[in-house]
Automatic annotation (TrEMBL):
One function term, GO molecular function aspect: 3-phosphoshikimate 1-carboxyvinyltransferase activity
CDD domains registered for this protein in UniProt: EPSP_synthase (cd01556)
PROSITE patterns: EPSP_SYNTHASE_2
Main location: cytoplasm
Organism: Methanoregula formicica (strain DSM 22288 / NBRC 105244 / SMSP)
Subunit structure of this chain's protein: Monomer.
Superkingdom per UniProt: Archaea
Pathway note: Metabolic intermediate biosynthesis; chorismate biosynthesis; chorismate from D-erythrose 4-phosphate and phosphoenolpyruvate: step 6/7
Official protein name in the record: 3-phosphoshikimate 1-carboxyvinyltransferase
Length: 421
């Protein structure tokens, strides 16, 4: 499916944020490991979250789908699998990484694999950490990359893990830790990538009854005496997906309000709004909403997005229309996403006339006249959505393979139908 995006004038729009993908993944896992039943209200129904649910079902978890909710019957920390299991997580890195440590709660070995791109995304730091807490890991093809086979039992104890490539390695151990035979103490020797996602992990864990003592992002101690308990849990709105709507106001002019957002959310992608404010937009918060209003020309900024990885590309699109240069820092780990989002974004912007340079941890975008063109997102949902939003300001941009947005935001094109027919 291709989508053609034309230039659009000023807007005055209201959108509802879709449910958070990150919270949905974690709530499914906590519910699966809990005692009793969990009702998840307003879960995100997207390709990635379905992959997590399908994998949990293969491990013996009952998940019932009802309108706008999921009913999860937990296993009380011990899966009831009867045979070795292979989990194909396709292109969902979150699913594969979070479920890797959960394999130590199974009776039999678990093989975790995925798409060709998934097999290029590193998982070595997590695999290297698991033996310290009872795991045995073997790689089927290339060492340090999926597919991998995980076996053993989650004993617990001290473990050191490198989270500089992905905080999901740390979250994987943390989420399984309440089910360990002894307390798990996770030490992180260097600053983790996307540290704010650890706050999401802890928020869900604690909501389900886990007890975690932390020293900033350097050490986490997880009690094995406070287990997950089934509960009713509502998924909050997603700031990553909302960023595309906010960017419309910045790029087209006018005003956009996004509802179903928690103003006090721990989601790191809230910082996207701080970036827009620094560029000259007016940002206002309500009880469960946020509004961005254009105030004229956009000014370039230097901004650290290390805690907000999923909105980096959206900010690049806004930066491409600013009157002065923008440098976005703290983004080296974006090379290991569904695509290399640093160099891929730079190459696509250059193809539209952009003036862009990159180094290992930053991207700089300078003012340049842009024109239309064809964008192949290479099956990366965030590339497709961010360049579609740029198309509203530039015009004449065609997105190929546009259905890839189903990975995280299946309703994207429907939400945009008044702007992108």
């Amino acid at each position: 499916m291709n989508k053609s995006v034309q230039r659009h004038g000023k807007v005055d729009l209201t959108f509802a944020a879709p449910p958070s993908k990150s919270f949905t993944h974690r709530a499914l896992i906590a519910g699966a490991l809990a005692s009793g039943k969990t009702t998840i209200f307003r879960p995100l129904d997207a390709e990635d979250t379905r992959l997590t649910a399908t994998a949990l079902r293969r491990l013996g978890i009952a998940i019932e789908e009802q309108p706008n909710r999921l009913i999860v019957t937990g296993c009380n920390g011990a899966f009831k699998d009867k045979n070795p299991t292979t989990l194909d997580l396709d292109n969902s890195g979150t699913s594969l990484r979070l479920l890797t440590t959960l394999a130590l709660l199974c009776n039999n070995p678990v093989i975790l694999t995925g798409s060709a791109r998934m097999q290029e995304r590193p998982i070595g730091p997590l695999a290297e950490a698991l033996p310290a807490i009872g795991g045995t890991v073997g790689f089927r093809n290339q060492p340090g990359y999926p597919p991998l086979e995980v076996s053993g039992k989650l004993r617990g104890g001290p473990v050191t893990i490198d989270g500089s490539v992905s905080s999901q390695f740390i979250s994987s151990i943390l989420m399984a830790a309440p089910c360990a035979e002894q307390e798990v103490v996770v030490t992180i020797p260097s600053p983790p990538a996307s540290a704010s996602y650890l706050d999401i992990t802890l928020s869900v864990m604690e909501a389900f009854g886990a007890k975690v003592t932390r020293d900033r992002y350097e050490q986490f101690a997880v009690s094995n005496h406070h287990h997950y308990t089934g509960r009713r849990y509502a998924i909050e709105g997603d700031y990553s997906s909302a960023s595309y709507f906010f960017a419309i106001a910045a790029l087209c002019g006018g005003k956009v309000t996004v509802t179903k957002l928690a103003p006090d959310s721990v989601q790191g992608d809230r910082r996207f709004l701080d970036a827009l404010a620094a560029m000259g937009c007016r940002v206002m918060y309500g009880k469960d909403e946020a509004t961005v209003e254009s105030t004229g020309e956009l000014s370039g900024i230097t901004f650290d997005m290390s805690a907000s990885p999923d909105t980096v590309q959206t900010l690049c699109m806004v930066a491409a229309r600013a009157t002065t240069p923008t440098t976005i820092t703290g983004i080296s780990h974006l090379k290991f996403k569904e695509s290399d989002r640093i160099n891929g974004t730079a190459e696509r912007l250059r193809a539209l006339g952009g003036d862009v340079s990159v180094d290992d941890d930053s991207i700089t975008i300078r003012p340049a006249p842009l024109h239309g063109g064809t964008i192949d997102p290479a099956n990366d949902h965030r590339t497709a959505m961010s360049f579609a939003i740029l198309g509203l300001a530039v015009g004449g941009i065609e997105i190929t393979g546009a259905e890839c947005v189903n990975k995280s935001f299946p309703g994207f094109w429907d939400a945009m139908q008044d702007l992108i027919p």
